[in-house]
């Protein structure tokens, strides 16, 4: 089956997200199983263009993953430590969770939350010492605030600011 580059790379993205491929030969075979014939050189270029890297899987083997997936997994791992390091108080109002930090520390907190791709979080907005975390439709800011509070593992102020 002849495919164009964008279509082939879309298939490759799906394969990398769900597969355990550790070599370009395995990637090429997986593409072939999807009806896409290509050379090892094409596979190599596609992996490079998509930002695929080899990382250790849970069982210790090296597998290809997309950089965005690696960043999200790394961010989820770093999230708790970043929250504990920088967040001093958690509040909420409506569909917002509000995280307080020392001056100039809001940006690293917002960044790691964004990269973590948390369920029910639409976006963050960082000021100097405050991060607004916008909850998805139908999710209360109190729910998101409680999750952050639990991640902190220590007592900080959790106040309700519904006005």
Plain-language structure description:
- The protein has 163 residues and is of the alpha+beta class.
- It has 2 domains: 5-50; 70-160, 2-Layer Sandwich (Gyrase A, domain 2), CATH 3.30.1360.
- The chain is built from 6 helices and 7 strands.
- It has helices at residues 5-18, 24-33, 40-50, 67-86, 106-116, 141-152; strands spanning 52-56, 62-66, 89-93, 96-100, 121-126, 130-135, 157-160.
- The protein has a 5-stranded mixed β-sheet, with helices on one face. Strands 1-2 form a two-stranded antiparallel ribbon.
- β5 (121-126) and β6 form a beta hairpin.
- α4 packs antiparallel against α5.
- The longest helix is centred in the middle third of the chain and has 20 residues, at 67-86.
- The model has no long low-confidence stretch (mean pLDDT 86).
Number of strands: 7
Label the CATH architecture of the largest domain: 2-Layer Sandwich
SSE order: HHHEEHEEHEEHE
Strand fraction: 15-25%
Instruction: Give the CATH class of the largest domain.
Output: Alpha Beta
Tell the overall outline: elongated
Rg, nearest Å: 20 Å
User: Strands across the major sheet, in which order?
Assistant: 5-6-4-3-7
Structural class: alpha+beta
CATH fold-type name of the largest domain: Gyrase A, domain 2
Count of helix runs: 6
Question: Main β-sheet, in a few words?
Answer: 5 strands, mixed
Low-confidence stretches: none
Helix content: 40-55%
> What number is the mean pLDDT?
86
Kindly report how far apart the N and C termini lie: 60 Å
| Count of all domains | 2
């Amino acid at each position: 089956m002849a495919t164009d580059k964008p279509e082939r790379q879309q298939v490759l993205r799906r394969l990398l997200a769900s597969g355990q491929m550790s070599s370009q030969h395995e990637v090429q075979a997986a593409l072939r199983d999807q009806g896409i014939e290509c050379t090892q050189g094409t596979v190599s270029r596609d992996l490079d263009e998509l930002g695929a890297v080899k990382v250790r899987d849970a069982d210790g083997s090296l597998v290809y993953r997309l950089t965005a997936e690696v960043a999200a997994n790394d961010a989820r791992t770093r999230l708790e430590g970043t929250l504990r390091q920088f967040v001093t108080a958690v509040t909420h109002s409506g569909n917002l969770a509000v995280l307080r930090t020392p001056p100039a520390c809001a940006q690293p907190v917002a960044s790691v939350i964004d990269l973590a791709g948390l369920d029910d979080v639409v976006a963050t907005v960082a000021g100097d010492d405050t991060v607004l975390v916008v909850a998805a439709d139908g999710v209360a800011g109190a729910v998101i605030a409680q999750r952050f509070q639990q991640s902190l593992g220590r007592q900080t102020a959790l106040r309700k600011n519904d006005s």
